[in-house]
């Protein structure tokens, strides 16, 4: 499982770089804000264009998508209910907590894991597209409306995503993938270059937050952090397994693909969203940290049991 460990090690080292830069006072919290904004408004949309344009979108129509969606829905709804009736969270905080419990790192970590554990990086495509085309636009619509201080309406859900740079990047990438069109090289190469800044920008900003922010669990109930972590590492892959195996009849390698992709840790861009909208930033940060560390043994165990 060398490639799996290398994927986690790469992420950890870049995060550590951000923490080191903050520790030696080369950067401050304002640098974190700037990096997060650049990642959100500029680099991430560019990365989405180039990533989705090269994805086989027909894979999203496979039966794997049903199990993947179930694996997302159960932990997200579980957290939303607890946030509403136990911790009385607002809609913005609830969205970030639900994403922390169910939105997997399908990009910079999912691709190498899929390539090594599953033998083909395209196995992560259904998860990637489900998140980018459905979960992320809906979540951002709610966050946009919550930031404006008004109730979410159907019009917000339908229209606001199309004003968001991440959604626009996703849709442009999907258009290129479906039609087979390719951007002219003089346009495509600058977009690819800018997009390459997204992942390191997110990770360095996250490392700065780890060093300058409150300690682990600071300012949030420990039970809430434990819930988001358990939902992500245990409930999500378990639900995906049950639906894929018993409802869809999947077995062998297709079953392994669904469960491994569902067991990936919480994506770093959830922290970018939390920072951008100033909602549940500590919960997002700490869930990412715990699930990234915990996903290593979980994925190795799944590969051993189902591989």
TrEMBL record:
Annotated localization: Membrane
Pfam families: Mem_trans
Annotated Gene Ontology cellular component terms: membrane
Top-level taxon of the source organism: Bacteria
Membrane topology value: Multi-pass membrane protein
Keyword list, A-Z: Cell membrane, Membrane, Transmembrane, Transmembrane helix, Transport
A GO biological-process term: transmembrane transport
Membrane spanning residue stretches: 6-27, 34-53, 65-87, 94-117, 123-145, 157-181, 193-213, 225-248, 254-274, 286-306
Name this polypeptide is given: AEC family transporter
């Amino acid at each position: 499982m060398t490639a799996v460990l290398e994927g986690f090690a790469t992420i950890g080292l870049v995060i550590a770089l951000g923490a080191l830069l903050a520790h030696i006072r080369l950067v401050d919290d304002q640098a974190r804000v700037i990096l997060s904004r650049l990642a959100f408004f500029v680099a991430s949309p560019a990365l989405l264009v180039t990533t989705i344009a090269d994805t086989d979108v027909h894979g999203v129509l496979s039966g794997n998508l049903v199990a993947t969606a179930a694996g997302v829905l159960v932990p997200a709804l579980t957290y939303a209910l607890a946030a509403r009736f136990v911790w009385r969270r607002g809609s913005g905080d609830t969205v970030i907590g639900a994403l922390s419990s169910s939105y997997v790192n399908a990009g910079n970590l999912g691709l190498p894991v899929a390539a090594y554990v599953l033998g083909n990086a395209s196995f992560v495509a259904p998860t990637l597209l489900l998140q980018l085309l459905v979960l992320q636009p809906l979540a951002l619509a709610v966050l946009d409306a919550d930031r404006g201080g008004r109730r979410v309406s159907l019009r917000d859900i339908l229209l606001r995503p199309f004003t968001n740079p991440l959604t626009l990047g996703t849709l442009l990438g999907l258009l290129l993938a479906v039609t087979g069109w390719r951007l002219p090289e003089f346009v495509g190469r600058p977009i690819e270059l800018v997009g390459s800044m997204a992942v390191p920008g997110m990770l360095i900003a996250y490392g700065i937050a780890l060093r300058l922010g409150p300690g682990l669990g600071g300012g949030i109930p420990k039970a809430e952090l434990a819930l988001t972590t358990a939902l992500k590492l245990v409930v999500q892959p378990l639900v995906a397994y049950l639906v894929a195996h018993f409802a869809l009849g999947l077995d062998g390698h297709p079953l392994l693909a669904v469960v491994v992709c569902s067991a990936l840790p919480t994506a770093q861009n959830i922290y970018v969203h939390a920072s951008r909208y100033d909602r549940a930033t500590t919960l997002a940060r700490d869930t990412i940290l715990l699930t990234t560390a915990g996903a290593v043994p979980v994925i190795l165990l799944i590969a051993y049991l189902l591989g």
